[in-house]
Amino acid sequence: MGRTSGLLYRIRGGVHPPSSKDLTAEKQIRRIEAPATVTIPMRQHIGAPCTPRVKKGDEVLVGTVIGDSEAFVSAPIHSSVSGKVVQVAPQPHPAGGEVLAAIIENDGEYRRDPSLAPPSPWEDMQPEEIRKEVRSAGMVGLGGAAFPTHVKLSPPREYPIDTVILNGAECEPFLTSDYRLLLEEPDAVLEGMRIIMRAVGARRGIVAVEDNKPKAIKAMETCVRGSGIEVASLRTRYPQGAEKVLIANLLHREVPSGGLPMHVGVVVNNVGTAYAIARRFSEGMPLVERVVTVTGSVVREPSNLMVPLGTGFSHAVEACGGFTEPPAKVIMGGPMMGLAQYTLEVPVVKGTSGILALSWKEARYSEPAEPVCIRCGRCVDVCPMGLIPTYLGTYAHNEKWDLLQRLHIEDCIECGCCTYTCPTKNPLVQLIKTGKAELARRRQHAERRESENRAAAEKSEGAGKDG
What we know:
Number of strands: 17
Shape: globular
Largest sheet: 6 strands, mixed
Helix content: 25-40%
Structural class: alpha/beta
Mean pLDDT: 93
Radius of gyration: 23 Å
Number of helices: 14
């Protein structure tokens, strides 16, 4: 089976920002070496952070586990270089704040850990064995969210998976790392997808690519011929690649409020994740590097790089010739959902899909002193989740927490379409993020207080029995 259709897959809401992908779309992936020292944080995914398994003075090799956790929602972290651990200490993290990290002096020899070896052919393995292998390799979603992959591949029995969608939409402007993988490594990408399908028992597989990438669509169509896997061409419109949007458009299934794709029988994985899984099964290599698009009008030579994890942003930029002028803003990821950086002395982590440097002209943005809404309704029209962003932003600004929950603020995917389209430059998505963070903090506080009260009651009851 080949391509499913042409332009049927429209999106509810969404916007159409300039793609700006021409800066790097034709740039072949180029591997760079790690700098003299790499900084590898113990938090690189959603879920429990890892505990260091190394200390100052330890020798490590490429692929040596340097951090792990007993928690199910977590994934181990491996060294991307061979050398010596010179420090384990809090360091700046590209997602904000400081995180405990292992700083490793690179000996430049890239000696592999002898324990690294390809597992048995995946066709001979049971799904549970595949999931264990995926976890031991430290796989997380490489689209940016960095959710541990083995968790995604372990749905409860009551939620059988019938379809795997491989997300190659890459709808964020500027980014082309997934596009290049589809062009340069289509066989490995397809192999990774087949491994994922076996792990979850899915019979149907769809590779989803936006129609502004015709070469990638053609490459995958050629690759999947005779495999039973489909290639879907998506109408180009942001945020076509959001997993709930993909599922709605491709399968006409709506993930329930507060639910996950598995609740409608679907698993969605990124192209880069599939490629990394294929490398694990063919070479034994854990997740120690990833493709990063380094781009922007002030980057001298915008490029797609294969970067060892722990490499500083500054080193990756230097590998692209540096800046032509001081950037006004540097973002990890794309301009719609990326995170602004205050320093280039932060490391590439598993979730670093891109490093974007904008000029002063491009970054100019003036927010109103107070949120202003003129009731135009544009944010409602473009919200792909059917929410009312203007109300959510206003309630977050005024700390109306109960009202935020009633309007399902948790269903916001933080795509930024509302802020992008607002004629008064109301920072709606920023307000919504603040509201979600505050609600999460309040939930944790309530749970902690409930746990403490329960423990106190049990202690009191025990004391009464003793008496």
